[in-house]
Every structure is written in C-alpha cells, then in structure tokens.
C-alpha cells in the first residue's frame, strides 16, 4: 500500500475542503491518502513515513486580489522552500477552469518551481454536481414545456459563445431568450 500525504492548500486561499472531499472519493487501488489543510499543523504528522508528499497551491483567477501583497509572495516562497526541502512535490490547482480558459486569463500566484498543473474537467464538474445535489429530491414535470432546451452559460467564455453562434447559425435558436438571469 502506497501512502500519500497531501497538504490541500499551501496558503489556504482556495477551497481546500472541496479538494479534500474530491480526493477522498478516489478509487485508486493500493493507495492511501492522508490530507491536511493547515500548513501550521504539519508538525503533527510523521512526514517521513509517507511514500509521497504533495502540496497543492491554489492558483485561481480570484487570487489576483493578492497580487500586490509582498508579504503573501514572501510567505508563499518561504513555505514552498521548506516543503521542497522536505520532499514535497507541488500541484498548482485551478479546478474550475479548462486549459483553454486558463490561457486567456491571469492566474495567481505564478509558481516559479517545478509543479504539475491540475485543471478543471469533467470529473471536477460531476464531483461538484454530486456534492451540491446528492440529497436533493427532484420532481420534474414536463407537461408545460416552453422550450426545447435550456442553454445555461453563466459567464461568457469563448467555447460557450462558439456553441451559441453555431446553434444560431443553424437556425436552432429562433428567438432571443425572454429572460436572462446572471448569477455568481
């Protein structure tokens, strides 16, 4: 059995609990995972007893708010240097964004060390939907359907706009929506 230790958010700027829950749903054979979300509790673990040690750095777009903080940069560098000296491998996590979207938006912090990128994808989306709706009881009634489909887009992104324009160009969208709801 390979033992893995994961610090789920080096600077605690992201959604470490979601990462915790996602990782705990793993179905990897012969792997065990111990997770810690607090850098300052690492001393409670016998780090040398693990086969692999990982540290996740949240690099989402929302962290741009921290970009002007020299203290944040210094503390991140200090923590990464210490973790690296203890044999940690690094993962930069942007779980909600695809690689294509990441190319078009600034992320922060930028890691100046060897790391693996964890970007969003189908598995993260379905994990999130599962977490959000696992105890919900749905009762659908389609007897008074007004539309053939709903095209929910949230924030405009290039791939969503392409699909919309393609559908509109094929005549599949006959009129503009009556109601546009944007929520964040």
């Amino acid at each position: 059995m390979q033992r893995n230790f994961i610090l789920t958010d080096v600077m605690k700027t992201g959604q470490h609990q979601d990462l915790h829950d996602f990782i705990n749903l793993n179905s990897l054979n012969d792997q065990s995972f111990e997770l810690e979300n607090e850098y300052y509790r690492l001393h409670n673990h016998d780090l040398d007893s693990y086969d692999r040690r990982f540290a996740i750095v949240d690099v989402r777009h929302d962290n741009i708010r921290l970009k002007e903080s020299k203290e944040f940069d210094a503390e991140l560098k200090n923590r990464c240097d210490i973790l690296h000296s203890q044999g940690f491998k690094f993962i930069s996590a942007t779980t909600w964004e695809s690689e294509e979207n990441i190319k078009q938006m600034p992320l922060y912090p930028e890691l100046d060390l060897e790391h693996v990128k964890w970007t969003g994808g189908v598995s993260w989306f379905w994990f999130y939907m599962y977490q959000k709706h696992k105890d919900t009881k749905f009762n659908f009634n389609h007897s008074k359907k007004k539309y053939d489909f709903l095209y929910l887009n949230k924030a405009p992104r290039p791939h969503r706009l392409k699909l919309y324009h393609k559908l509109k160009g094929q005549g599949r969208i006959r009129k503009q929506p009556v109601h546009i709801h944007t929520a964040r």
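Residues 178-184 have pLDDT under 50 and may be disordered. Helices lie at 16-24, 70-85, 99-103, 122-133, 158-169.
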